[in-house]
What we know:
Elements: E1 8-11, H1 15-26, E2 31-34, H2 37-46, E3 49-53, E4 56-60, E5 65-66, E6 77-80, H3 87-95, H4 98-101, E7 107-110, H5 117-125, E8 130-135, E9 139-140, E10 149-152, E11 158-161, H6 167-176, E12 181-184, H7 186-198, H8 202-207, H9 211-216, H10 218-237, H11 250-259, H12 262-268, H13 277-283, H14 295-304, H15 310-323, H16 336-346
Parallel strand pairs: 1-2, 1-6, 2-5, 3-10, 6-7, 7-8, 11-12
Antiparallel strand pairs: 3-4, 8-11, 9-10
Amino acid sequence: MREPSLKILIIGATPLGAYLAAHFTFLQQDYVWYTSPQIAASVLDAGGILALGARGRRWARGVRMVTSEAYHEAYDVVFMAMQGYAVADALYEMMQHAPTLRGSATAFVAMQRGIGPYERIASVFGEKHTIRAALTTWIEHPTSAAPHIFVRMPSGGVALAEGHPLSAEIAALLYAAYLPVLLGESREIGWSALLWQLQANTMPALMDLDADDVYRSPSLATIEHAMLLEALGIIQALGVRLIDLPGAPVRRLATQLQLYPPVLFAERGVRNPAPPSLRVELEQGIDRSEAAYLNGAIAVNARDLELNAPINYVLALTLDDIANGRALWTQFRGNPRMLEAIINVATDR
Length: 349
């Protein structure tokens, strides 16, 4: 297979941004990574990026980075690799350079979790220039003391929306970077990924527990099950067909949610193996949360459909309040009764 030759910009001082930069370096791809001065300095001090993944330990040396003036030329593909809550700030900066960035072949690949970031990017650059992507492999840097070291889970991959002239070529590029790729319909990818990303995410974050501990608690497992069923109901009301994603049996998850009671689902249900991303946010002291694009997206769409999704609404609002300092995490950590109380109020139990 011929390796794609595309001029690429990666935006995001994130583990995903580093992963793409490292593997595009291995592929001798024409790219530049727009990252923060702090990350750039740590990579330079380390002599590169240590990628631990499908091919074992590999050093990516000579990583091409910029920390400013990233938009002075046109690119074939722009990978939007920042978190969902950082998209608005990135777009504000990019809009000043939209005439240069936006060309007939330019593709903006939205790789954020949940529903909302893709739509925001498409509102600036247009649906025909924007490609939805869903990442089902977990990419992270293990310690703050070694920010240049990035690892990834071996399972999962990327689901990429078809329909753009460059979709197939981008898929081939990601496949060459050891990310299994599925091409599919944009809306199906987005909502299927959302259901998968909701699982064992918000509850472990609020309780400051591992996912296994949440599922071992009958009361927490019951709330988790009800939250997922509520989300599934909204997705079905939208008329979206769920599909399996790389490493993510979403359709089996949906079937089990409808057939299994909470305790059986906790014991035998398929599980998203990724660490809870929302808990990682709180642990790192980030003052914004992607819960708005996960549980919050379910609540917003429920309102638009004139339906109810009280559990997702409460979970999104509570997590956002904690991240922004309007509520104390200590009130919820290891305290299921606090969460049960606000869920009961929201659901009129």
